[in-house]
Design the sequence.
């Protein structure tokens, strides 16, 4: 009788295990990505000067880009350079563009590209294709700027993309806001019973890319981050080279770094180097 009860509970466990695993595997994109779609004809209404353009990658893929102008420069002078901004897993560039003034006020242009399915960008993507889109974005910047004038900035989900790009192309600096050791390591925390390496669509192994980055690296992370644990990001510290920085923002959560003076002061000093 006892064996039957144990066997019954084992079957229940295996059934639940399989249902949860299958549901997560096929639904992981919905769990991870929260885009806000915009109509292609819908105008942006930013408070600062900008230019909108579209990069036609292939027949199905259009990458919408907004280029914010530097605001502290005379109209007839050039900006110091450009910041290529890789945003997080939610909303679209209309949301993240609101924060561009924090950098354009320091003499840099800020360019933001929406991933396919976000905002006005169309098409689909795999992790490999995301890297390809990032490279197209970089090549657009190289048509105007030298590598020494290009800053790569990644936030949250976008930190893995920025790190990968910096590992294969030269830049002035790599800035990572709320990064992860790898996407696999973040999900393994919650799905420790599953073969996450095999099931995850996006691995984004930041730890593999940082050792190949020759540019200076600055990392910002809040020690109260409940989305990407502070301890997960701290695993990147041994991979940093001399002169790189890991800046802890005490009390900051995942979406509140720019509420803290320390973050703004440090970002200001980094952008003025």
Sequence:
């Amino acid at each position: 009788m006892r064996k039957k009860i144990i066997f019954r509970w084992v079957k229940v466990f295996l059934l639940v295990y399989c249902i949860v695993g299958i549901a997560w595997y096929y639904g992981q994109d919905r769990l991870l990505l929260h885009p806000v779609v915009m109509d292609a004809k819908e105008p942006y209404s930013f408070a600062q000067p900008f230019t909108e353009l579209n990069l036609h990658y292939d027949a199905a893929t259009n990458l919408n880009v907004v280029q914010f102008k530097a605001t502290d420069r005379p109209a007839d002078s050039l900006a110091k350079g450009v910041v290529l901004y890789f945003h997080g897993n939610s909303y679209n560039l209309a949301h993240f563009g609101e924060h561009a003034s924090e950098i354009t006020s320091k003499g840099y242009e800020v360019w933001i590209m929406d991933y396919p399915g976000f905002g006005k960008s169309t098409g689909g993507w795999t992790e490999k294709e995301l890297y390809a889109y990032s490279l197209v974005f970089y090549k657009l910047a190289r048509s105007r700027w030298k590598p020494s004038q290009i800053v790569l900035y990644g936030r949250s989900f976008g930190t893995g993309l920025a790190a990968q790009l910096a590992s294969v192309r030269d830049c002035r600096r790599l800035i990572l806001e709320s990064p992860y050791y790898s996407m696999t390591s973040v999900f393994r925390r919650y799905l420790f019973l599953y073969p996450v390496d095999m099931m995850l669509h996006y691995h984004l192994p930041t730890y593999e890319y940082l050792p190949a980055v020759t540019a200076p690296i600055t990392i910002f992370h809040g020690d109260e981050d409940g989305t990407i644990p502070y301890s997960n990001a701290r695993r990147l510290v041994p991979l940093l080279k001399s002169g790189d920085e890991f800046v802890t923002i005490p009390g900051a959560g995942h979406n509140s770094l720019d509420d803290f003076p320390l973050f703004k002061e440090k970002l200001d000093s980094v952008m003025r180097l």
Q: What stands out?
A: The first strand starts at residue 34 and ends at 35. The chain has two domains: 1-32, 35-271. Residues 1-32 form one domain. Strands lie at 34-35, 50-56, 62-68, 81-86, 90-91, 108-113, 150-155, 173-177, 217-222, 245-249.
